[in-house]
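# step 3/5: fold
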Amino acid sequence: MSETLPAADGLKRNVGLFGVVSLGLGTAVGVSIFSILAPAAAVAGPAMLVSMLIAIIPMIVFALIYSFMGAAAPATGASFEWPRRFVHPFAGFLISWMRIAGSTAALIVLTMVLVSYMAPVISLPSKLVMFGIFAAVFLINLAGVSLVARSQAIMLVILLATCAVFVFGGAGHVAPENFTPFADKGLIGIFAAIPLLISLFLGIESATEVGGEVRNPRRNIPLGIAISVALTAAVYLSVAVIALGVLGADKLAASSAPLLDAARVSLGSHGQLLILVCAFVAIGSS
């Protein structure tokens, strides 16, 4: 029989399994896919697909640790609460501020990626876009975690739908010769691309940050993280296969907007709009 732990600190447990998956998958499947494929293709060639499979392994271990902790000690603000409770209050303080600084820097980089993708269609002032995104994220979080989960769910559906159109629309334009020679960069290239591709999976643990507001956390957090890992791997692998198959490793490596270029080839003018929508939603979900 599943156990529903009582709410702590007056927080309402209104995040279910779908909310956990939305938070984890929505954060992990983000703008990184728009910027990482080109350098990974430059380093490993078509064998970047092998690098991606290997990159999943440490993230599975990472997810298992967070699943265990999220089920055993669900807490809101887990990145602060766990170190504070199990190590020292100063450790919680330090780690929390490191995460805040890192997330702020990541948001700036992601905004720059978004602006660069939209530049061929519309010129946007990067600082204004950055301010707008910061303000929107702040207001959504201020409204409460349930709105965050619902917003993530909506953006996730849009993101997965656009990725599906990209994958199925591009499948007919995949050229098998673009995958040969497969490992021309050798083992060094394969292993050199792994650190780049590991970053694709960061964020899967995000759902543990609202553990104190998850219904039946002993079931929903581990299951939600497991589903998030599986879906994230499936999305990234399928998008990478199509991008490689449509453009080839050399063109993919040389492109400043690889998914945009691949979508133009396979979907024409509609592909450009599709990828712009996907990029905008991706940064919002991240």
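# step 4/5: annotate
The two ends are 34 Å apart (CA to CA).
# step 5/5: archive (pending)
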